[in-house]
Amino acid sequence: MTDDQEANRRFYEDVIGLPLVATWTEREELAGVERAYSHALYGLADGSALAFFQFADPRDQAEFRTDINTTPLRHIAFKVDADTQQAIRERIHAAGLQEANPHVLDHGFCVSLYVTDPNGLILEFAVDHPDVERIDAEQRATAHTDLARWLAGDHTSNNRWR
Question: What is the pTM of this model?
Answer without folding.
Answer: 0.85
